Amino acid sequence: MIVVIGGGPAGRLGAMHLAQAGEEVRLIEQRSIGGQCLHERCMTICALNDIARLIEYARTQKDLGILDSVPTVSYPAIQRRICEVQEKLSSVLDAETRQVGVEVIYGAVGRLEGDRVFVGDEEVRADAVLAATGSRPAIPDIPGTELLGVYTYQTLPTMSDLPRHMVVIGGGVVAAEFAHIFAAFGSDVKIVTRHALLGDLDPKMRSAALRDLTGVGVREQAAVAGIEGAGRVRSVMLADGEELEADAVLLATGLVPRSESLQGLRMGPDGAVVVDSRMRTSVPGVYAAGDVIGPPYLTPAARREGVVAAENILGRDTVMSYEGIPQAMSLRYDYAFAATGEGDGGITLSAPAPAGPGSFWDVAGGWAGLAQVRVDPGTGRLIGAAAAVPGASILLSYIGYLMKRGITVDDFDEIVEVHPSTDGVYGLARYAAGMFKKKNE
Questions:
Q1: Do 382 and 405 contact (CB within 8 A), yes or no?
Q2: What share of the chain is helix, strand, coil (3-state, %, to 5)?
């Protein structure tokens, strides 16, 4: 018997992989299968952002005189419908997981005491364990976070209606995504961040993202002194004395591993379970994967970690590689990035993306997105790519894999692209190939 604790992307994929190999697998999930990705994060952002984009596209076409009005939204209806779809998706995932032979137990807490496994208060026999207990929102140490009207991505579904004034605290991807959504819905939104907003992005990609956040007030290099209100949030007070009106505050201040039920394992200062490249913990026979082992907190990484753990449980030596794993962000356009992990070397080329589905009408405003490649000039290998266009997240999934396999810009000469498309990576790679050929003649 192999016990998997947690039914998110890492645990579910690991459990299915083990069951398909003929192992007896029991998956312990406290609530519904699918994890935070389905119930609070990725899918929720997809649902909300689809509506935000619809409103923005309608606004563009109204400005062009094509449409005569811009729709308004019913936030309670949105939340109700999101829950209905999430329940449907969860039932599909449940059926898919059971179909391959995984036994799923809901409503129970799985925990570890070293190599001893408990389901609730009952100790169960396990030949191996995969701990995939996920993460939870990090709550900053500032006064007022307990007030009504202060939310995290987990509690945001309890917000009854659109706020007039929302303050988003945080400067990463999640902060930008939710700020974009609620600004499109008509709320007055301000972002407060201690550092630069989206400061980890390439400068050109960051500049593109900030275009999508036009209309959102941004306070960078700003510290929050406290959240004010008598029982319910009224404002956010900054350390420099500025007071921002708010009837809703969203804490988008990162994640921390949910590892408190995993006793006896070596952990880092933040509670992340320490694993090696084979997902092995400090306790023999116990493996861990997904958010509980700490960054990068990415669903595709978690899925792969779960499979790597399963392979090693099966005795098939497999090493986890993060090379080429794409990252994404959803604003007015999709933003996606992938790299081989070869540092900051290479030559970077950027260009406007070609207009196509989802961006044709934006050309009137002078903007149809951005594409970027990074190339090793010595070998011609593509070592990085990024795009800010409709469909970028799909494009970078395959580009990331091809980079891992060593694709060169010369190889793009043999690719016949779909047209019309917003893919500017293809054209840039071909341009780079021609540039290097001329240089070497």
A1: no
A2: 35, 25, 40
Q: Which fold has domain 150-253?
A: FAD/NAD(P)-binding domain (3.50.50)
**pLDDT at residue 103 is higher than 80:** yes
Question: Please, what CATH class does the domain formed by 2-136+256-313 belong to?
Answer: alpha beta
pLDDT 10s digits, 373-431 = 999 999 999 999 999 999 999 999 999 999 999 999 999 988 888 899 999 999 999 99
Query: In CATH, what number does 327-440 get?
Result: 3.30.390.30
DSSP state at residue 376: -
128 SS3 class: strand
Q: What is the mean pLDDT of residues 284-303?
A: 96
Residue 319 CB partners (closer than 8 Å, separation 6+): 277, 278, 308
pLDDT for res 441: 63
Instruction: Name every residue whose Cβ is closer than 8 Å to that of residue 76 and which is 6 or more positions away in sequence.
Output: 160, 161
Domains of the chain, residue spans: 2-136+256-313, 150-253, 327-440
Residue 343 has pLDDT above 70, yes or no: no
414/157 Cα distance (integer angstroms): 48
